[in-house]
Amino acid sequence: MKVMSKFENLFACLTGAESQAYLAERIVPKNNTELATCIRIYDNIKGYGDLFLYEVCIRKLLGYGTSFGRIKILHKGTGWVRDPRMTNSKWSKERDFMFHNWKEWLQISYVNTPISVKINSSLRRTSWYNPIIGELNLSLCTPGNTTWNMDENLIESQLVIEAQLKEYEQEVEKMRKKLLAHLALLTDLWFHETRNESFKVTLEPLNQSWLAYAM
């Protein structure tokens, strides 16, 4: 896939963009002008702002349905696996199955309790707290073992987790609308450029820092 290598080099952790781009290339006709716009955005990625604009472009192209033949795109926070950042590494015994995107060198320790379920924007996007207390005994990694010593400070009720995930989804939607407005202006600008027509538009540069999108 032609877009894969650049994502691997620049934003290896953001595999959702790769998956959606691959899906678009499979189901959208090659001569689709919207796909060409998305690819042009991709070709000029300089940071996270451009990356998320690209994701918004691809998602708009695909439509906002969730089913594409044998492929289904789940809403944020509703799958079996999710990012710990959404709930500041807190989880519910009733609704959570697995976190992903854990990297050992990004594991941190909390200082104060109780730990808020709210996202801490001062931390790195992929930082996480270990839900297990003590050293892992790999000999206990057998089917049916339930003797893990879980950190109670990181366990939350299902109600609180669900409320935080809903709030997270609403913040993502706000960001999506802003990026869609930017995309509309950019698309108009490029359209008039191809026709050598003058087009006056004030296009504010996107913030390329991940902190601007630390949700």
SSE arrangement:
Elements (H helix, E strand, L loop, with lengths): L3 H7 L4 H13 L5 H11 L4 H15 L4 E2 L2 E2 L8 E2 L15 E2 L7 E2 L19 E2 L28 H37 L21
Parallel strand pairs: 3-4, 5-6
Antiparallel strand pairs: 1-2
Helix pairs in contact: 2-4, 3-4, 4-5
Protein model, in words:
The chain has 215 residues and is mainly alpha-helical. It folds into two domains: 1-73, no CATH class; 78-215, no CATH class. The protein contains five helices and six strands; from the N terminus they run ααααββββββα. The strands form three sheets. The chain has a two-stranded antiparallel sheet. A two-stranded parallel ribbon has the order 3-4. The protein has a two-stranded parallel ribbon with strand order 5-6. A hairpin with a 2-residue loop joins β1 (67-68) and β2 (71-72). α2 (15-27) runs parallel beside α4 (48-62), α3 (33-43) runs antiparallel to α4 (48-62) and α4 (48-62) packs across α5. The longest helix is centred in the C-terminal third of the chain and has 37 residues, at 158-194. The radius of gyration is 20 Å and the shape is elongated.
Number of strands: 6
Radius of gyration over C-alpha positions, nearest whole angstrom: 20 Å
Mean pLDDT: 83
Strand content: 5-15%
Shape: elongated
Secondary-structure element sequence?
A: HHHHEEEEEEH
Q: End-to-end span in angstroms? A: 29 Å
Largest sheet: 2 strands, antiparallel
Strand order of the largest sheet: 1-2
Instruction: Report the helical percentage.
Output: 25-40%
Unreliable spans are: 1-14
Multimer state: single chain
Number of domains: 2
Structural class: mainly alpha
Keywords: Coiled coil
Coiled coil: 158-185
Pfam family, one: DUF273
